[in-house]
Fold this sequence. Notes:
With 546 residues, this protein is mainly beta. It contains five helices and 42 strands.
Amino acid sequence: MSVRIRSPRPRAVPIALIAAVLGLLGATALAQPAVARANTLTVATNGDDDNPGTLSAPLRTLQHAVDLAAPGTVIQIRGGVYAPEANVQINKDGEPGDPITMTAYRGEHVVIDGENMPYTPGELDGSIPRPDRGALHVEGDWWVFRDLEIIHGPYGIFCMNCNDNVFDRLVTRDNYESGLHLFLESGGNLIRNLDSYGNFDPRNNGESADGLAIKEGSGEGNVVRGARLWNNVDDGFDSWEFTSPILIEDSVAWGNGFDRWGFPDFQGDGNGFKLGRGADTATHTVRDSIAFGNAQHGIIDNGNPASMLIEHNTAWDNAETGFVFDRSTSTLNGNLSVGNATAVSLGSSGGSGNSWDVKDDWSDADLISTDTAAITGPRRPDGSIPATDFLRPQGHSDLGADFSDNDDDDDDGGGATEPGRYEAEGASADCDGTIDADHAGFSGSGFCNTDNRTGAFAQFTVDAPESGTATLEIRFANGGGDGRPAQVSVNGAEAGSIPFDATDGWTDWSTATVTVSLDAGGDTVRLVATGSGGLPNIDYLEVAAD
Ligand code: GCU
Ligand code: CA
């Protein structure tokens, strides 16, 4: 159909026929969202495990959905609280480029509550058998976990021997051990925009529950971006005895290590980011991150002997030392330490351009803002941390972490959106498929991956400042080998087409443009696949007035 519409001799096709074909396409597209796709499994609190797992006949349990999943399956969970009596065992793998996804259904609020599971909490000084660790116990590779809240578990998520997974926009709070824990041979995992707080371990009087732990193991390529780790009983982040490099950026840790639970023999530590004990090979990098108001130190090597890179971070108002790197041979550049009991302890670590290299007497008067409201407040719809001047220095703009000017092009945790840009994963867009993040180079926190079928769509509600023609620029990647043509409609009316030619793979992003007329105010722009390949992966749509 699309071939005829875009034929070099369009006059051979009567207008009425084109209109009829487009009408049909429109109808198909509208009918699609209600129909679950073959590789989609829906779970709902009113479901039944004898159901097929469609939207209208959903499954009841997460475990059954996991048992049915195969590479490419999307487990979409309807809003509500799920409180199974056994933890969810995830012991199968997706595939490279074809992960298994477990996600909230279209932004609905999903809570996985571990309170009914064993070891919530475990007995004092006892240990938790490994398979019982984690409300979600993951031993799989190539999974994407997105938009889920995990509470009261025997650990929130416990991931052991798990590789190449994405943990995106998760909340892990008030668990009876660490919120999210990677363990043993675990590499290639991306942890993005995690909020992990209030985790505590009565079993150990607070000795070991961190917000995020990547501990006692190895594996290259673990990345933490845009995490907020607060009010945990032990540390915000801890990489105790993890011997491979970890990258942490655009993250914030505060208020860790205080006894908020009245433990009889309190053992919590209270560092923002704790980077040891490791090995020479544990050359972690921490950059553009903030540690404030922790019970002990801001960022500490903790006996890790490696040469780590600590750049453009800020430590403020921690009860002990801002930066403790006296047992490693690390390089510290451009860091800012203000209002801690001691600014820095360097030992044989070095570096340059830090606040302590500039002058000695730093105080709150040197800061533009100490207002925590934005950095600790709600995330933006795309999951990023709101832009804020929090702890930016007056002058000396090359010092410290900077959340004030994050842009969304670098896949970081924060960022003000470009004017006129609508991310496919954002609140004003609707993706007839899944929001994925497995092909690098996208902006914001993900892209829309529709199914491979005619009628699959991505829709954007855009705001035109005035009526008239506007150019829509759509960023996409098409590694499918062939064109993925689409019709464009505005407010339900046909408005053009885009061939979406093949690009050089799924990480090769390109832009296509189409000129349309928009009404002032909200317009609905829909891209509908006219070929059986579906749409290419769609990153964003930008509107430029002509
Ligand atoms: C692969 C790729 C996806 C893409 C899909 C497709 O599975 O990883 O990102 O959307 O192919 O062909 O549409
Ligand atoms: Ca696709």
